[in-house]
Design a protein that fits this description.
With about 240 residues, this protein is α/β, with parallel strands linked by helices. It has eight helices and seven strands, in the order ααββαβαβαβαβαβα. The model has no long low-confidence stretch (mean pLDDT about 95).
Length: about 240
């Protein structure tokens, strides 16, 4: 019953977000829109019964944030702390209601299988950074089970290098009352969005742990070397967050 109530409240919260996008966003500037995104995301976590723990400090000013990818909850968790524009796969744009809501929040959508589209998004990210915006990407290109880090794709890191803006890694870890690395949070394999929502709403003590790690300069960096350093930083933090037996 608690899970059902959480999902009902989540549905109402999504509708509230859509009303804000339709009736408020056209009349406010970008910083005000991002403030709304942050408040809405924090409320969404609470509605779903997800706690939030934060370590480290997000970089101020134009920054490319780079995080490991576990679930759609990643976006809520990061935005609840530091509202940013995300780069997400184009499939999300087709999600009923949520796709439109995500686009309203400033997300840039990418067709990862198309090289030309990756170049298009790279230029958009670089321009956003030069304009002083903050953007977040998931270089793994897919979700993992949350235990470690998959190989990083370096392409979008070129945007920060071109714009000569800093890059900050973020380590994401989800735990719950039973597991230090929650299987319920992982949105992997053939899991549907509704199955994932039910798993999240049904889990006791689900907590998102967001760790902001030291910033890396990007000017004149080699993107593959930079990707390797960022992946290593996040992997080391995830290892440190795993309890030893």
């Amino acid at each position: 019953m608690r899970a059902v109530l959480r999902l009902l409240r989540c549905g109402l919260h999504v509708l509230r977000g859509m009303l804000i996008c339709a009736l408020v966003f056209p009349f406010i500037d970008a910083p005000q829109r991002m403030a709304h995104v942050g408040r809405w995301s924090a409320r969404a976590l609470r509605v779903l019964g997800i706690g939030l723990r934060v370590s480290g400090m997000p970089s101020a000013g134009a920054t490319l944030f780079v995080a490991n990818h576990v679930s759609w909850i990643d976006i809520l968790a990061i935005n609840a702390v530091q509202p940013v524009r995300f780069v997400s796969k184009a499939d999300i744009r087709a999600w009923p209601l949520l796709g439109w809501l995500t686009a309203c929040g400033g997300t840039l959508f990418i067709e990862r299988t198309r090289t030309r589209d990756a170049l298009r998004v790279l230029h958009l990210v670089a321009e956003a950074l030069k304009a002083g915006e903050q953007v977040a990407v998931f270089p793994e290109g897919t979700t993992s089970d949350g235990h470690g880090v998959l190989p990083f794709h370096a392409n979008l890191l070129q945007a920060a290098i071109v714009a000569e803006m800093p890059v900050q890694p973020i380590a994401l870890r989800f735990s719950d009352a039973r597991e230090p690395v929650s299987a319920a949070a992982a949105y992997i394999g053939d899991t549907t969005l509704m199955q994932s929502l039910w798993a999240v709403a049904s889990t006791d003590g689900l907590t998102a742990q967001v760790s902001f790690l030291p910033v890396h300069p990007s000017g004149h960096a080699d993107r593959r070397a930079l990707a390797a350093r960022l992946a290593a930083d996040i992997a080391a933090q995830l290892s440190a967050m795993t309890p030893t037996v």
